[in-house]
Amino acid sequence: MAFTGRELRSTLNEDGTLRLSLEQVTHGDPAPDAVVVQVEAAPINPSDLGLLLGPAQIDTLREEGTADAPVLVFDVPQGRLASMKARLGQSLPVGNEGAGTVVAAGSEAQGLLGKRVGMAGGAMFADYRTLKAREVVPLPEGASAADGAALFVNPMTALGFVETARREGHKAIVHTAAASNLGQMLQKLCRADGIPLVNIVRSEEQAAILRGIGATHVLNSKDEDFRARLVDAVAETGATIAFDAIGGGALGSDILQAMEAAAVRAMTDYSRYGSDQFKQLYIYGALDLAPTTLNRLAFGFQWSVSGWLLMPFLQRAGGEVVGAMRRRVLGELTTTFASRYTRAIGLAEALNPEVLRAYERKATGEKFLIEPGKG
Amino acid sequence: MAFTGRELRSTLNEDGTLRLSLEQVTHGDPAPDAVVVQVEAAPINPSDLGLLLGPAQIDTLREEGTADAPVLVFDVPQGRLASMKARLGQSLPVGNEGAGTVVAAGSEAQGLLGKRVGMAGGAMFADYRTLKAREVVPLPEGASAADGAALFVNPMTALGFVETARREGHKAIVHTAAASNLGQMLQKLCRADGIPLVNIVRSEEQAAILRGIGATHVLNSKDEDFRARLVDAVAETGATIAFDAIGGGALGSDILQAMEAAAVRAMTDYSRYGSDQFKQLYIYGALDLAPTTLNRLAFGFQWSVSGWLLMPFLQRAGGEVVGAMRRRVLGELTTTFASRYTRAIGLAEALNPEVLRAYERKATGEKFLIEPGKG
């Protein structure tokens, strides 16, 4: 039996246009160790937008195609094509994670038939997805597709931050853009595990969200005394590691500087190399595309600024650690790791210009869920 | 028996002046495990200037004191005092390393009496220095004080770079400000050990120095096609680690970008997270005091930019590795690790305004040696 369905594709063309469309894809009989899953829910994560929209200029959006087969086209500045050479002309499927029901299973995977599963691995903005059986996780009894659609990216990232901090010997964490879905998860996780967390946000509305779930250290970077309060919060918690979703500008540098200032407060002897307190900044997002500025003379020589990505982290952590992380996510699916969606849309709706502009805005507190069954 | 002699001191005062002077210090009988060394030679390393002159404005230099007891005074901008709070009012001795003859030894260190030794640990710009016996290294037969004066900072740093690269799994190295004394040492070391080294300099004169000692990859960052040639050199050598003495500006970022471009050349599939090639930039100096700018979108998420300092590296490396490094330095003291001095000056001469301006300039190829015996 074969299943034919739609798959959302993003294509960057050499002529400087980016094209979104729904392609028909047929899934044949799965291999012995594989399954076909009917996708019931897939979240739109910030990390999906990079592949979906890439370097497109949103205000150049135009509609082509039909209501049944919508197509959106955008212009891309020529200057940004060079770094995208490797994807030119390729029709790329989108969607990091999702949940659905197994509708076909290979001979070795029959136990999964009819089960509702969570999954990750790309191409989830689709009606069907074929995967290896070991790539899906059966959801706990009673869990909805929405409950299980986002058990990978944000929960594993939040756990990955805590695990990274532990492995590298830090006892408290600083997090930016902290009112995000991921940020709220991290706050709940750190509270449960007794790890002090300093949350940095950019508005009072965001600060209120975090205080509402029990956050004690919440700083608004727009406040005039932000830097002084950051030093105090870092000194009080002992935070020496930070995870930064913003990337551009000097906020990361300000955090390292606050950590150094807190360490120097505790020093008795002068050292022109600064404190011997090692400080780590991980950049895991790019909410600000500007270059990163490091005022490194303000934080000595004991520091590191690094990229942080989930997949390489999981590879380094190894199967045992990853297994324990997965079990914890399943166990706390509707508590610590619950995602809250503000809007559920169909697959074709994802290519509605107004809807796209809404989820592209990444507004505080808004989170979209694609439910292909809705149309 | 007591030895009384001069010690060069740097004092940063709250009134915003920096004062250099020679103080008389008396060294009494050494403890059982200690020795008194008459200092015969001490190099002026770039790393000494940070403590000696700190944030002083060189063009505000004025002479106070007498020919026998020279004193130099400089102004320091108020804005730069805040980060120097910990040294305000302290009379700090200067000079990271040197060589001399043991003139007094404790009961457990009699074997060192009369020996010529190399040493590190500060306060070397002086007539005498008291140290633990284990802090000095007897020089090979026939080695002069000048031969053994700089066996610590530059040789251990060059070896530290190679050891760091090896430990972290890199097979080739990029180095900036590569015509420095340290850079030439690193070139000789990498050549001897068969480790490809990409040297980046800022003038043709500097490039010629490196080619003269057998360097094959020498790039002038002032050349118009510098970036393209850097990608080629990185691709050819497979360099994925860089040591940067400059720190400020975007050169470090350019190096990471070149490493990424070389890695992407070899990729077949597009990934919006960039290549999975890990790239490491270590900043170990501050020839440019400006902030560091990272155009991180051009090099993906698999990278790290960190401070690199010799002492913490040696602590992490452990006694066995450090012992092997020391033995190698002594064995190759007059070959791989030979320092070339362009001018020897007395201790009082170091406080002569014209001489100070000359060594403060850090001109290419110039290297000063203090010989306290000269006066």
UniProtKB/TrEMBL annotation, chains A, B:
GO molecular function list: NADPH binding; oxidoreductase activity, acting on NAD(P)H
Domain Enoyl reductase (ER) stretches: 16-330
Sorted UniProt keywords: NADP, Oxidoreductase
InterPro entries: ADH-like_C, ER, GroES-like_sf, NAD(P)-bd_dom_sf
Transmembrane segments: none
Pfam families attached to this UniProt entry: ADH_zinc_N
SUPFAM superfamilies cross-referenced by the UniProt entry: GroES-like, NAD(P)-binding Rossmann-fold domains
The organism's place on the tree of life at top rank: Bacteria
PANTHER family, sorted: QUINONE OXIDOREDUCTASE PIG3, QUINONE OXIDOREDUCTASE PIG3-RELATED
Protein name: NADH oxidase
